[in-house]
Protein: Aldo/keto reductase
Amino acid sequence: MKTVTFRDGCSVPALGMGSWNMGDSNASCAEEIASLRAGLDAGLSVIDTAEMYGSGRSERLVGEAIDGQRHAVFLISKVLPSNATFDGTIRSCQASLKRLGTDYLDLYLLHWRGGVPLEETVEAMEHLKSRGAIRRWGVSNFDTEDMEELDALDTSCSANQILYNLEARGIEYDLLDHDRDNKVVSIAYSPLGQGGELLDDSVLGQIARTYETPSGIARPAQIALAWTLRNPNVLSIPKAGRRAHLRANLEALSITLRDDDLRQLDAHFRPPQHKTPLQMI
Ligand code: NDP
Structure:
C-alpha cells in the first residue's frame, strides 16, 4: 500500500479515514462504526477526528470503532483554537483521550490558528509529548506564512491538515512544497469535495470510465481520490460513513492516473497561477 512518512520515520498508509459528522445521527452510527472497522481490517490505520466534531460525538464513535484494536490504529485528533492555551490544550487532550478510550494519540493537531500565541500551544504540545499522551503534533489550516512563523519557533511540527481536492488547488502554489521541504506531511481534508458537485463533474466522469478497478469501471470519487494520492507527501482522509463508499475508496489505491488524464484534469481544474489565501471549510 502507498504510504507517507513522518519526520520521525513513522510510515502510515497514504489513505486514511475522516470522521466529521459521524455519530451525529443514531440511525447511522452502526453503519459508520462498521465502515471504520472495515477500513481498519483492510489496513487503513489512520483515523482522523476532533474534539469539535459533534462536540465529542465523533470521538466517542471512533472510540467504539477501535475498541480492542488500538494497536492497529494511527489516531489523530485536534484541539480547538479557543482551547489552545497551555492548560486548555492539556485539558482538551485528556478529554479527547477519555472519549476515545485510549491513553495516547498518534498525532494531535491545532485545528486552526486562533488568538493564543503559537509558542504557548507548541509548549503544551511538547509537554503532552514528553508525558507520552501524544506521539507527535501538528497543525491544521495553516497557510505558508503561518508555517514560516512556526518554523521560526520550532521545527518539530509533523503535519499540516489542509483542504485539498480538484476544486481547491491553491496549496499547490507554494504550501505543498513548503511542507514537503520542511518534513511536514500534508493531510488532505475533504478530498472528495464533501461529496458535492465535484463528484458529478462530467470531465471526471469521462476519465473515470477509462479506468478499471477490481469491482468494475472506476467512479469519479475514485479518480478524485487517486488524484490527491499522486503526491508522495500527501495523506488523504476521505470520510465514508457507508461501507460501500469505504470499499470504493480502498480501490482508488489501485489507480495510477495517466499523464494525459492529469493534463486533462489540469485544463479543467486549473492549478494556481499565483498565491491565493488558504481556503478552509
Ligand atoms: P469528504 O471530501 O471526505 O467527503 C465526504 C462525503 O463524501 C460524505 O458525504 C461521504 O458519504 C461521501 N463519500 C465518501 N466516499 C465516497 C465515494 N467513494 N463515492 C461517493 N461519495 C463518497 O469530506 P469531509 O469534509 O468529510 O472531509 C474528510 C475528513 O477530513 C473529515 O471527515 C474530517 O475528518 C477532516 N476534515 C478536517 C477539517 C479541518 O479543518 N481540519 C475540515 C473538514 C474535514 P458517506 O459518509 O455517506 O459514505
The longest strand covers residues 74-79. Residues 18-20, 48, 111, 140-141, 161, 189-195, 199, 221, 237-242, 245, 248-249, 281 surround NDP (CB under 6 Å).
